[in-house]
Amino acid sequence: MSAHKEKTVAELAAHVGGSVAGDSSIVISGVASIERASEDEIAFVEDAKMLENALGSRAACLIVPEDFFPESEGKCLIRVARPKLAFALIAEILHPPKRLPASIHPTANIAASAQVGEDVYIGAHVSIGERANVGDGTQLYHGACVGDDVTIGRDCIIHPNVVLYDGISLGDRVILHAGVVIGADGFGYVPDENNVRHKFPQIGTVIIEDEVEIGAATCIDRGALGETRIGRAAKIDNLVQIAHNVQIGARVVIASQTGISGSTVIEDDAIIGGQVGMGDHARVQSGAIIGSKAGILPGKIVRAGVWWGIPVQPLEDYKRLNAHMNRLPQLREEVKELRRRIAELEERFKDEHGDSK
Amino acid sequence: MSAHKEKTVAELAAHVGGSVAGDSSIVISGVASIERASEDEIAFVEDAKMLENALGSRAACLIVPEDFFPESEGKCLIRVARPKLAFALIAEILHPPKRLPASIHPTANIAASAQVGEDVYIGAHVSIGERANVGDGTQLYHGACVGDDVTIGRDCIIHPNVVLYDGISLGDRVILHAGVVIGADGFGYVPDENNVRHKFPQIGTVIIEDEVEIGAATCIDRGALGETRIGRAAKIDNLVQIAHNVQIGARVVIASQTGISGSTVIEDDAIIGGQVGMGDHARVQSGAIIGSKAGILPGKIVRAGVWWGIPVQPLEDYKRLNAHMNRLPQLREEVKELRRRIAELEERFKDEHGDSK
Amino acid sequence: MSAHKEKTVAELAAHVGGSVAGDSSIVISGVASIERASEDEIAFVEDAKMLENALGSRAACLIVPEDFFPESEGKCLIRVARPKLAFALIAEILHPPKRLPASIHPTANIAASAQVGEDVYIGAHVSIGERANVGDGTQLYHGACVGDDVTIGRDCIIHPNVVLYDGISLGDRVILHAGVVIGADGFGYVPDENNVRHKFPQIGTVIIEDEVEIGAATCIDRGALGETRIGRAAKIDNLVQIAHNVQIGARVVIASQTGISGSTVIEDDAIIGGQVGMGDHARVQSGAIIGSKAGILPGKIVRAGVWWGIPVQPLEDYKRLNAHMNRLPQLREEVKELRRRIAELEERFKDEHGDSK
């Protein structure tokens, strides 16, 4: 959901520190892929194989690596060190997130004790609880539910039907996609002598730091006694489960459908693939990259490097072991052959020397 | 959620091209299992082992294979080639999806520029955005959110609390179960030199073709620059993740909790089990059947046939390798035995010939 | 989301059958961890290693095992057999779930034929369908949708944006977290000769028994012809998928992101880890504990004991096989060595005896 703006090639090149070849006064109104670009759009090329297609496209301008000197002089170019990054930065300018004008929909249900900042959009069927605080410039879409004593920072985007339980806290510029649930009770029970489970108290909170983005239907449980924390600028995909008291570091990336059990720590800048499962009280250190579908046992410490498999092991080990497993049928054949040769030796030995026993 | 109608056995048999044995004027008011059928309901049998139970049931009529000639003449029968299919077709007649009368609930929030067709039901707490278009006969339940510029076809059923982000498009007779999220931003970022992630533009769309059904809490992200597409009559289960720019073919089936990464293509008629994970830019060809929990690496092409495991391999290979792994302890014992026999041979050789070195 | 009460140490000790050392008149207003406890809070210690920290904490009172006799006499203690259980029981007293006063929000949409009991809280933007029945003391939060003919027992807590499809039934003291979906159509189709899938009738129901708690965004489908049932006091985590006709026994525990296919039975007291996948028509017997990420094939019967892996096997077998796999490189080396020794034997044999062939 984004708006549209227009800029000249010169303005865009300045924004990304690039140099222009061609007419820098061309007005660009959007970004596009090479295949779909129209005459007022800008595309990017990073791969020399795509260059010919790019030059033949309708794009008004191409963002290209500094070492590309295409012969076609007809196309306007912006040369930069990292075209894909420049493309993303330009898209931030040309397609800023949609901002609805400040307003409160008449169907919204806002507690008298809630504090709503300046320039806030509150959509239809939203609820905001007692003593909640919504920062300036934040947008709350249809059906979002903000519990009592929740704090939301400035310029957040809360998509439809998000649920924030009581007492949780969001920083500034946080984006929560539709159906996100933050602050539900963690999953902890203590069985009594009749195996009836009593809830271990789930009375902590969740703290989401600035610039975090969380994908649709992801669930982040509140701390049992302490807090669950998502560090600054972490990016979390759809349908992820984050249990009570998990600590996610700054700039961590977590792909879809991964599940992280209670009290596990993921340090700054770690990258976690999709459908990964982590036991409780594990620790993923900075510099670790965890491949999709990996499994991390409770209490495990995963150091920097690339990890793979169930249970996780260094990617190189995983590959080597996998190769060994794939050669198992061959190994079996080799053992059979050795067995045959030994039997033959034994037979010959017996023939020529008799049984020495 | 379904309504109830009544039909005679004759009418039902005609609908499924079956032949009746017994009183074809009996009125049937519902389908049921053999165990639970009451005197005005119809059940089906496909397995000869179930036949006796079926004849003893209270069902008013049984749908049976053409080659069943039960001796009990007391029971009304409809004979067809495929009883389970006939049962499903008869259930479509007797239990059509619930249709609420055309109406717009006073709590619904409908933009002035939205177009709502004939015979549409719009439930409580629904929102419909600017320039959205809702086709004739569509039913939108409680709390559904239709973004700006969304197009919804005819006779769709949008269950409670579904979220359709701006600009996405649904065909006709689409069914979306509760909590589905369509069109959230795809998960794509470009890190800068400080490892701050900038959103790669997620400004494409999602196209859902006719007769698609999508299970509860499934998330389908919008294309980054292009579109994410779900092909005609595809059936997708609950809690599935479909990333940006994925292309799902016609009549594809995807079971629960499967995740499909960006730009992956699933061709027509492929069948995907539950909890499968697919890397990005993979391709599953027509005729492929992917077993539950399989893992498909990025860029992998999966041909027709049955596939299994992490990473996926043909089921036969998977089974063979699995058998080899299960025999590993035995292989180890064999190697030990060979080692013992070799040592013995070496010993004898030395005893009788001395060490030739 | 919980309230706060105050009790003396004497009252709390009596509640958990513990004996007090120190001043039993101290007033306690909450539970806390050792690290975070303030002067009016109670904490617990189960591990002797934590004892010193605990005695040094600010907690007003500690719950300790009966065999702990700390030298520090300054701290008030409650001695019990199971401190963690006592802590949970005390938390139930000091932090009872939040109860909003009986009221019906003016934005709620309640069918005229619905029956709402005494002392019920119905929040903003809730819908309650025709002939639905809400028991005494139940709390329905923002945006919850209760379908037609739904029965909800007494003292349930239905968190925001939960969806209950038509006809499903909840017992007493059930807790459903935000975004739960109960009663969506099961995933069952019958393909016709053109591979067009017709919905197998999904016209059964879901029965949730007393004291069940279900985590955020979990989906439980209705039975196809019969019912899906969640047994008394079962505890289910977030983002779990439970398919049509599944039977979950009493006191079963299921961790996050697990998926259970159609008609599978989980008997009383079984414990299921996270991200487990179960095929259809499987049975997990009482006393079984299934490790995270395990895979259970359709029709499999899993007996009491600890199970692990894909496909599941007894944990001991899994560990043994895993050890064998990790020694594969070594096994390969051994086979190589044997090959060398055999070749040497063969060579010597030939040297000394000539080729006997």
Low-pLDDT runs of 5+ residues of chain A are none
Summarize the biggest pleated sheet of chain A: 12 strands, mixed
Q: In angstroms, what is the radius of gyration of chain A?
A: 29 Å
**Structural class of the helices, strands and pairings of chain A?**
alpha/beta
Give the class-level CATH name of the largest domain in chain A. Mainly Beta
- Would you give the CATH topology of the largest domain in chain A? UDP N-Acetylglucosamine Acyltransferase, domain 1
N/C terminus separation of chain A: 87 Å
| Count of helical stretches of chain A | 5
CATH homologous superfamily grouping of the largest domain in chain A? Hexapeptide repeat proteins
User: Which geometry of chain A do the CA atoms define?
Assistant: flat
Quaternary state of the chains: homotrimer
